[in-house]
Amino acid sequence: MHRLLKRQIKKNLVSTDLNSEELKNFLDSINEAYKQMDSDYEMLERAMDLASQELQEKNLSLLKEITEKKKAEQLNSSKSDFLARMSYELRTPMNAILGFGQLLKIDFKRHDFISLDDSVDRILKAAKHLLSLIDEVLDLSQIESGKLKISLEPVNVIEVKNELLNLIKPLAAQEEIRIIDNINIKNIFVTADHTRLKQVILNLISNAIKYNRTNGTVTLSSEVNKDFFTFKVLDTGHGIPKDKEINIFKPFERLGVENTSIEGTGIGLSISKSLTELMGGTLAFESHEGKGSCFFINLPLSSKSEISDEDLAKEVSGQLSETFSDEKLILYVEDNPDNLELVKRIFSRKDNVRLISAPDAEKGIDLAKAHKPALILLDINLPGMDGFTAFKKLKVFDETSNIPVIAVSADAMEVDKKKALDMGFRSYITKPIDIVNFLEEVEKTLN
């Protein structure tokens, strides 16, 4: 527009009385003014572009903040739901433990030994359920954080199946469920973590029993192709409604049975799916509402056919002696009186074991130097000096450097176990103590 104005000015100036020099100067000044206008116009355009860019960035930043706020709100909501569910799940078995514990005390005073025995059974059942819940939550947190370690090796899946059937058939009989084993293969090896494979298969069979009908069946079958072995668990339960299938592997989802008498947390399938995938396999299902469901895992085949390390461990375990040839002195470093009393009672059943104890690491080291025990049981979370530091000090002194040490701790994380074993602990036993496994570890170390 200013160029049209410039031409109009030139046209008007032709009729003026200015001489050529004055006209030239006048036109030059107008040209400079127009150049300045062009420059100002370009600066204005750049400023507008910059402002537009800044506005877009602010909008994106605001959108990001809103999105993050929504995510935070959803996360907080999930955490609240998780804590509410955990509170319920923990309080249920704790109610049984505390309630029957009180009845135990009353019945003992009344000498009502029939009720006494029933109370003990119920306490043990509730405690096992509570421990199972804690282990499942721990597994879930390790899986979600990417910290769960899987040790892949050739595993005879048929031996795992047979071992689990011996364990679970009494449970099936109690629920009036018949287990049909249609897997006729004698030996087949898959690449898996032995412990985690047992955990997955046990979860699938247990679910098939729990969510079945009275007088129903659980059928085990398998398929083998070139690269994978498929393990199937078919039940005759009520099946899964189509609209709920999408939530089957979500943690804490129980698909409407949470208000029934069927025990469970809704974590097992989520963990099983993640574990199967960590082992290089898949877990899937098919279900027909009103007829039942079939869950199946696919795992990569292994070419191994010779005896496995697990078989060798079982043979060695079977040779462990019930008693020791001479008296063994064991030192237990533990600050919790109840934990100490439990171990005292365990060893009171062994004729030739003498137990001494210390409430902290410093006194434990002094006792170890003075008495030179055959074995030291060492708690990790001790007041003052912790168990790891105490272990290092024990290895410094000539009197104690060769004494085997077993860690006994409530820290069940794999990273803690690995740290202890890497340092030189003979074994790592987690609390609550499984008495049979505990004694086996002690006997194995001493013998």
Can you describe this structure?
With 447 residues, this protein is an alpha/beta fold. 55% of the residues lie in helices and 16% in strands. It contains twelve helices and twelve strands. The protein has helices at 2-13, 20-110, 113-145, 157-174, 194-210, 268-278, 309-318, 337-347, 361-371, 387-394, 414-423, 435-446; strands at 153-156, 178-181, 189-192, 217-224, 228-235, 282-288, 292-300, 328-333, 353-358, 375-379, 405-409, 427-430. Helix 3 (113-145) packs across helix 6 (268-278), helix 4 runs parallel beside helix 5 and helix 9 (361-371) packs parallel to helix 10 (387-394). Residues 305-324 have low confidence and may be disordered.
Features:
alpha/beta, five-stranded mixed beta sheet, about 450 residues, five-stranded parallel beta sheet
Strand order of the largest sheet: 2-4-5-7-6
Radius of gyration: 37 Å
Helical residues, percent: 40-55%
Low-confidence blocks of residues: 305-324
The number of helices is: 12
Look at the helices and sheets and give the structural class. Answer: alpha/beta
Please write the string of helix (H) and strand (E) elements. HHHEHEEHEEHEEHEHEHEHEHEH
Tell me the fraction of residues in β-strands, as a range: 15-25%
Main β-sheet: number of strands, strand sense, barrel status? Answer: 5 strands, mixed
Q: How far is the first residue's CA from the last residue's CA?
A: 104 Å
Mean pLDDT: 77
Please state the overall shape, judged from the principal axes of the Cα atoms: extended
Number of strands: 12
